[in-house]
Amino acid sequence: MSIAFTVQSRDEKSEARCGLLETPHGKVETPAFMPVGTYGAVKGMRSEDLEAVGAQIVLSNTYHLAERPGADTIARLGGLHRFMGWNQPILTDSGGYQVMSLSRRCVVHDDGVTFQSPLDGSERTLTPESVVAIQAQLGSDIAMVLDECVANPADRKTAEKAVARTQGWAVRSRPLAENLPGGLFGIVQGSVYPDLRHAHALQLSALDFPGYAIGGLSVGEEKEVTWEVLEAAVQGLPDDKPHYVMGMGTPLDLIEAVSRGADMFDCVIPTRHARNGVAFTSTGKISIKQQCYAEDPEPLDSNCKCPTCRRYSRAYLRHLKMRSEMSGAILLTWHNLFHYLDSMRRIRHAIHSASFADLLVEARSAEEAAP
Amino acid sequence: MSIAFTVQSRDEKSEARCGLLETPHGKVETPAFMPVGTYGAVKGMRSEDLEAVGAQIVLSNTYHLAERPGADTIARLGGLHRFMGWNQPILTDSGGYQVMSLSRRCVVHDDGVTFQSPLDGSERTLTPESVVAIQAQLGSDIAMVLDECVANPADRKTAEKAVARTQGWAVRSRPLAENLPGGLFGIVQGSVYPDLRHAHALQLSALDFPGYAIGGLSVGEEKEVTWEVLEAAVQGLPDDKPHYVMGMGTPLDLIEAVSRGADMFDCVIPTRHARNGVAFTSTGKISIKQQCYAEDPEPLDSNCKCPTCRRYSRAYLRHLKMRSEMSGAILLTWHNLFHYLDSMRRIRHAIHSASFADLLVEARSAEEAAP
User: Fold this and answer.
1) Across chain B, how many H-helices and E-strands are there?
2) Quick check: helix, strand or coil at residue B238?
3) The overall pTM is greater than 0.95
4) CA distance B117 to B349
5) Separation of alpha carbons A136 and A318, rounded Å
């Protein structure tokens, strides 16, 4: 197992911590945000752009890549890093979540997930073993186990069954980690039930993964439930291993989760919002399509140091969006990713310099004051 | 009039020459290719990307910008350069061609062009005076006069009438050049009739514009007609002023036109082809969607030094195109613009170093050998 994690400093008043995650393709400072490159490309960004905007790791979706162009093809081309022209760390999901949420005729059973391929209608099965094998072909620095993520709301019985199945799959997956170039993370399930989450985290920890994800959060539940469940899960996980909250979230979500011991995040929000004309700023979200920006000479965020804010006005960005110009989506994607990655830098700096509590208060009050 | 042109070196065996065009926003080495940013943005490229790829001047479309966001808006925002975040030269067309080719109920009369606005259905008129005024609002370094570009084929009578009208408009426009921050170019018309082209070029030259365009070429006529007409026009134009061939062309077209005394070009081909998955290479065009590239680890063009060819395989670019990923269009746009701009650099270098004839032979034989 060639990944390692070291906690470097801790906030005294919360569970927040800074760490360093070492992978076969280099180091990642945590807390870390991972831009999502579903098909091996973050929409609108070249790999050199991701470097320039400060991404240290990206996430790619195994299910999508395995369908097209296919894991065999990527393996023959030298793996996902070479394919993408990205020489820094890559985390891949297992593909299970996508199959369960996107596929028709999907059946989850103890051996895995059987579904109808949208490509040719054939019946296919993902197993705990096969998803590790696919991620090995991709050459991921961090691979994820197959897990069962139940829909929200789920009754307790359903959640318990999914936890049991996920744990069984984790047990089967764990020895296969030796075949991976990097590390394999376990995934905590348990829906909205804090005691289930805590119990599963403890069970999973016994398998000694090099990192742990918390899955099935931010899927529609109330925020206070999210945080209660996250706290319960983190308390059951080893403190000296990275904690990755899958699919989260808004900038405020991220700092709230960091205060509860989360180290890693991925989310399509910054990139998808950018394509929809929504920009994150230090004073809240703005929708650039609004008429009020038609002659606004100011940048998206006058506190932002990103290339978009250094050079372009809201008026120009609105014009590009109204004309559906690709360049508009590109410029907003740069800004939103910079905003997210810069937020993580500020979080890390605050933890290192014992001012995280202030940053958290500031983030919460900015959210309340947002228009 | 604050633009100037100096011929710096000449090819001995053809009409090709290198020059330096000085504008309020800096210098342009000619022969020059101008990427097209219809709505004030070259599709898929940020202004910093255009700088990085080596563009020295861009073209923007007055008609499109005047419709949306409006010339008044751009003027209030400090002009087109500030609006686009582009501090190098900008050439704008008059908008006449777009009105005549895109608008419904368009009527050309001696006073100008009356058309129905696609925005609100209202009747509007472009006059020789109004198009200069709009381009003054935009702050173009090089503005174009209103001209009448007849459809191809056009009979001689139609072509003669269009020349007469275009010349009348040029006479009306010429004194207004004083209101512009940069220069105003006249436009030679005359359809496929070399004698009309030559006569109009002489007439227009009497008005002493700081530069001259040849309009209405590459609109479907045979190539040998294109070159005959271009030669006739150029022979009627002052040798010490820049010659701009509007809307041209392929890489071979450009070097052929340079050999006949052309100095400036604009065309949507490199950017539009990129979005359609077509790349220009040193051995011809390739359509990246073809199955044969599915596992091709080579760059688009192994002789190319562009960022796309330095980093990405044909297999990756094909995958992105097949998945309609924006990043695929971006990477091909970078490559195609680099290819065009690099071709112009090679042309300039060849003229300076007395090897243009060899380059022309090479370009012609590469085209013949292309698959």
Assistant:
1) 15, 16
2) coil
3) yes
4) 46
5) 43
Average pLDDT, chain B: 96
Beta strands in B200-333 (DSSP E): 211-214, 243-245, 264-266, 278-281, 284-287
Tokens of B202: 């002489």
Q: Please tell me which residue of chain B has the smallest CA distance to A308.
A: B46
Task: Establish whether A240 is a catalytic residue.
Answer: no
Residue-wise pLDDT for A21-35, tens only, equals: 999 999 999 999 999
Residue B266 is among the residues annotated as catalytic for this protein: yes
Residues of chain B with CATH 3.20.20.105: 31-238+249-260
CATH topology of domain B31-238+249-260: TIM Barrel (3.20.20)
Closest CA–CA distance from residue A257 to any residue of chain B (Å)? 31
Residues B183-209 have pLDDT tens digits of 999 999 999 999 999 999 999 999 999
Residues with Cβ within 8 Å of A223's Cβ and at least 6 positions away in sequence, in order, are none
* pLDDT one-digit tens code per residue, B111-155: 999 999 888 889 999 999 999 999 999 999 999 999 999 999 999
Q: Is A79 on the interface with B (CB under 8 A)?
A: no
Average predicted confidence (pLDDT) for chain A: 96
- A114 vs A358: CA distance, rounded Å: 48
Exposure letters B189-209 (e unless 16+ CB within 10 A, then b): bbbbbbebbbbbbebbbebeb
HSE at residue A156, side-chain half, CA atoms within 13 A, is 4
Where in chain A do CATH 3.20.20.105 domains reside?
Answer: 4-267
Closest CA to B186 of B115, B203, B98: B203
Strands B112-116 and B123-126: antiparallel
Instruction: Please give the ipTM for the structure prediction.
Output: 0.98
CATH homologous superfamily for the domain A4-267: Queuine tRNA-ribosyltransferase-like (3.20.20.105)
Structure tokens at B298: 């080579």
Which region, left, alpha or beta, applies to residue B354 given φ > 0 means left and ψ of -120 to 50 means alpha?
Answer: left
